Amino acid sequence: MNSESYYVPLGLEALSAPEVDSDQKITVERFDSTDLTISVWAETMQHGAPPSALLVRALERCAPRDDVRLTRVVVEILGPIPIAELEVRSWVQRPGRRVELVVAELWTVGDRPRAVARGSAWRMETVDTSDAVHVVDPPLEPRSTGRDGKFGKAWNSGYLTTLDWRWIAEMGCEGPGKLWAKPRPALVLGETLTPLERLFSIADIANGVGSKLDPADWTFLNTDLTVHIFRVPEGEWVGVSSETSIGPDGVGMCAGVLYDETGAVGRIAQTVQVRARP
């Protein structure tokens, strides 16, 4: 098992000069997935967090500009993401000076390639608004008040074993679940995580953090995540406070707040498919 990264670039040129389709203006990179991406639901599929972060990496690097940043990211999980070689394709869907839409897709590689995840992001021009700063959500309790621990008794494999944890309010508690988490591996071998790559390497766990269901009796897979980022996070630790609401027909919604150690940086929402185990 590779213990250094979630993904390995296929060829050194992928790190500095990814292939570009000049006709469609699509940037293409290839990666091999490591066992550190394995999901809690099946050993043959990836957890949603590493692919989300890989898509964000592509969105940040797509036709890069110093005067813009990602402000809202939507990740759609289109099917099981295999532990295998993958291709990332990215392009500018809607160019603009102040606001533009960028898109990235994750594809399988082989005889019958298919898209397994898609990320889209609004990218906005940045200006100085330091005199107008206002934060609605109060800071999360500090890491020093939390405890070390694993993510549930039933989950001890793959991706979840790659994180350091500090639980503030544990999964299944009354009210929102709360924790601090930090990924130990790199996203891509040989690279340092950007602040948003780090945020998205954690964000997808919100569904589990906020669940009130025992995973031994229920499955609750999210099909998507939408993250609004009003401030770029700082530091190595990501805070999550989240809770899942469940309807009467097998559909749930997780909603939460994401933090760095200074305070809130954005909010997350996920659609959840809830099923009782046989």
TrEMBL record:
<dbReference type="Pfam" id="PF20789">
    <property type="entry name" value="4HBT_3C"/>
</dbReference>
<feature type="domain" description="Acyl-CoA thioesterase-like C-terminal">
    <location>
        <begin position="152"/>
        <end position="273"/>
    </location>
</feature>
<dbReference type="InterPro" id="IPR042171">
    <property type="entry name" value="Acyl-CoA_hotdog"/>
</dbReference>
<dbReference type="InterPro" id="IPR049450">
    <property type="entry name" value="ACOT8-like_C"/>
</dbReference>
<protein>
    <submittedName>
        <fullName>Thioesterase family protein</fullName>
    </submittedName>
</protein>
<dbReference type="InterPro" id="IPR029069">
    <property type="entry name" value="HotDog_dom_sf"/>
</dbReference>
<dbReference type="Pfam" id="PF13622">
    <property type="entry name" value="4HBT_3"/>
</dbReference>
<feature type="domain" description="Acyl-CoA thioesterase-like N-terminal HotDog">
    <location>
        <begin position="40"/>
        <end position="124"/>
    </location>
</feature>
<dbReference type="InterPro" id="IPR049449">
    <property type="entry name" value="TesB_ACOT8-like_N"/>
</dbReference>
